[in-house]
Amino acid sequence: MSGYDDARGGSADRRGGRTGGPGRGGHDRRRTETGREEHGGDRHRTGGEDRRNARGRERSAARLRGERSGSRQAPGQRAKRTDPARTAAFDVLRQVDESDAYANLVLPPLLAERRIRGRDAGFATELTYGTLRLRGRYDAVLADCVDRPLGELDAAVLDVLRLGTHQLLGMRVPSHAAVSETVALARAEVGAGPAQFVNAVLRRVSEAGRQEWLERIRAGAPDELTALAAVESHPVWVARSLREALAGHGRDPSEIGDLLAADNAAPRVTLVARPGLVDVSDDDAWHDADLVPGRWAPTALVLDGNDPGAVPAVRDGRAGVQDEGSQLVTLALAGVPLDTAQDEDTAPRPDAAPPASHEAAPEAAGGRAERWLDLCAGPGGKAALLAALAARQGATLVANEVQPHRARLVRRALHAVPEGVVEEVRTGDGRDLGTDEPGAYDRVLLDAPCTGLGALRRRPESRWRRTPADLATLTGLQRELLASALDAVRPGGVVAYVTCSPVLAETQLVVTDVLRKRDDVERLDTPHAVRSVLRRLPDGTTPDLRLPAGDAARDDVQLWPHVHGTDAMHLTLLRKR
Ligand SMILES: C[S@@+](CC[C@H](N)C(=O)[O-])C[C@H]1O[C@@H](n2cnc3c(N)ncnc32)[C@H](O)[C@@H]1O
């Protein structure tokens, strides 16, 4: 990467003061004067309400195809080529802002389309995800370097600044290259005037190292939680909810720093080997993939590398990419005995030998094969594991999903499951199922729509999208869905209430509230159910799940990224009396 040598970047502020530069108004005015395409406007404002508008989508789609709307710089300023990896990262950030896109869905096809491979692809990936994850930290840094509220800056300029700041403070890019390459990106994407501003601001950022900036952020915060939230790049309300969740689930709230830090670490790629569909020793299925057993689930394999698409078993649906927490909660539901009279040890372990045939498996009360229901199945990760387990236990599965396009994803996820196991993939509102089919199922998985605040490692942009108002909407829906799941299960049957959020309002409070209104449900010993499906260690024991003990012990299970290395999955098992 080249060093910085740009006489045109002459507005660099070396006096140590904050830098004003072109804000939204200035940026637009400049473009109007030069007659170039209107690019910023209110749509680009961070958090702008109208970012979903059609023009934004069109522009984003064109950008993803690699089409530029024409050079925004004077010919004499075009000498420096922009780096394709940085341009790709910028384009993904703009998509995330303009169209509410998910970076993990947009970036891989964009890299493939532009033939960005190898180290460049790795650089673009780290730059994109790292910038999105640490956006809050970088905004705190940038707020110290710019003399107006960041919300007044053109959103595209702000994204360029965040990209430059991540290179300076979060990657091992030499300062001169981080600044000069980012200024070149700014010049190509947002124009020469803003590029000068970017140059000046990034020079201010580069005057201190990461540690010094973190100390400055901490010193400037009004209280400890706000400081931690800024340093670890979480909205304050999210940090507060997570700290409350730690306490409510029986952990020490002082773990919040470790939890927030764990949200900023890219998770390892974990695969699920769907039992009965693929064998770990089948070399053809794994095609030389470097795999080690997971920490908790007997079905989990950790992939050393980042390309699960290269693994044949993943491509053909016998395996999939799935967090171990998701695997554990699904295995626990499939393994829990259906009625109290049954000896718990008779529940089949997921790594036990399969029954001799589909028909030879245990039956539900009444002598029929068990019927299982996945009430909110899209896109189908848990449904696929559940269906594989159902096949081994002689059960059948109905998968329900309210959104038609997600129901299609469920069908695709289930295509490797043996014929006859999946009764139906239906599209419908799960809230109606309890009334439509009362007592019709033996096991029901309710993996409820939730804030996803337990899976922030995987969705780098999502922490900035959620608002406290989402909680009110979601918790109402979660209550209705849980009531429906409990109506849909037969007496003696089991419901698994699952969220990928540890937030108390979505976990304990939903369950407590729904159970308060009915007397036909009992809580099961969920920690026991989860322990009984853990993988066996070489010495025959199972790993220590490190759940709260003593007074803090609970009858539900909450997993944590900083303790278990999984998403913060929540599981409560309930039995209909
Ligand atoms: C947390 S996701 C489920 C993830 C899924 N279990 C998996 O492992 O792939 C929740 C799903 O519930 C769906 N959903 C939301 N409201 C619903 C409703 N009223 N009825 C059924 N499904 C609903 C959402 O579309 C989303 O696909």
From TrEMBL:
Composition skew (Low complexity), residue ranges: 354-366
All residue ranges annotated as the SAM-dependent MTase RsmB/NOP-type domain in the record: 370-577
GO biological process: methylation
Domain of life: Bacteria
Ranges of Basic and acidic residues composition bias in the record: 1-16, 30-70
CDD domains: AdoMet_MTases
Ranges in coiled-coil conformation: none
Family that this chain belongs to: Belongs to the class I-like SAM-binding methyltransferase superfamily. RsmB/NOP family.
Annotated protein name in UniProt: rRNA small subunit methyltransferase B
Organism: Myceligenerans indicum
